[in-house]
């Protein structure tokens, strides 16, 4: 029995030691934002047993501060909390569409005490805490010229009239992407951007961004006639396979209507509608035409994709050539015919040369044989000896 008490005491001591190892491996970082945007804080905690993480909001300052626990869906569903428990605990709180009233101190708490949620014993429970602030500024007054741009506009400008904190620099963005050459460390609250031909061609949402306590920006939308382009203007497909034709657009405003047409080799034109043969897939900035079982004599020709928005319409052409399934055999058959012709020519040539070759052999055969020549020389030598 005494051994059981000792073992229990050891386990209690072990639990107390391990429960005190709860610690932050990532504390929340303070954030500055503008009303109407979202703000988020993140913390990560380790410990054994795995600790629970909670978020609290601290109002006012000591001794009059009040602390309110935040739950997912609080503040009219503008608070979102996502927590994961794996090898350690990680939690993120995000506040959507922030207002000035969301400014304040936020606290990430963690504890693995088994009685941490027993209200009558709250004072005995040990929580570790890490705080961060969210500062919310009013949306600034940034004057833009023009309010909305069109294809004839060349220069966009922004004037930050009453910055609440000192300006540290500014730059421009197009569709959320920074235009690197516009980065500046100027502290002046005025900036301009000259739209080049490429930007005029595609349009988009241009924003001037002033860097101060946080990033303040204002947008100017450049609307243009849609620009449609086919990545490949020539396509080849084998008969009865599936043909895939595609057109893209990066225009602003986005294309709201796509359509396809077909012009055959005889210059007969028709609009394409979806059926068993044609399938048209439409995405915000892309359209794809699928042609099932194309025939070489019917589906070869020019396909045109048309894109339109409020500013007008633009199109691009794709030439499709449908090959016969036997097309791959023609090179092989050509080689076979060439070999047959070559063999026939060689055979005929050799056949015609044989009589001439035999005649040449007879002439060669009429020359004196070696034995006969040696015999003649022998007789000649004998006669010469007789004369001496």
What does this structure look like?
Strands 2-9-8-4-5 form a five-stranded mixed beta sheet, with no helix packed on it. It is α+β, with helices and mostly antiparallel strands. The protein contains five helices and 26 strands. It starts with a helix and ends with a helix.
Distance between the termini: 153 Å
Shape: elongated
Low-confidence stretches: 9-19, 380-388
Number of helices: 5
Helix content: 10-25%
Average residue pLDDT:
83
Secondary-structure-based class equals: alpha+beta
Q: How much strand? A: 35-45%
Indicate the topology.
Elements: H1 2-19, E1 23-26, E2 31-34, E3 39-46, E4 52-59, E5 66-70, H2 74-77, E6 79-85, E7 89-95, E8 104-111, E9 128-137, E10 142-145, E11 148-149, E12 155-160, E13 169-174, E14 177-184, E15 190-194, H3 197-202, E16 204-211, E17 215-222, E18 228-229, E19 234-238, E20 243-249, E21 257-264, E22 269-272, E23 278-283, E24 286-291, E25 301-309, E26 312-323, H4 329-365, H5 370-387
Parallel strand pairs: 2-9, 11-17, 19-26
Antiparallel strand pairs: 1-3, 3-7, 4-5, 4-8, 6-7, 8-9, 10-12, 12-15, 13-14, 13-16, 16-17, 18-20, 20-24, 21-22, 21-25, 23-24, 25-26
Give a brief outline of the structure:
This protein has 388 residues and is of the alpha+beta class. It has five helices and 26 strands.
Could you name the key traits of this structure?
388 residues; alpha+beta; five-stranded mixed β-sheet; 26 strands; 21% helix; elongated; disordered C terminus
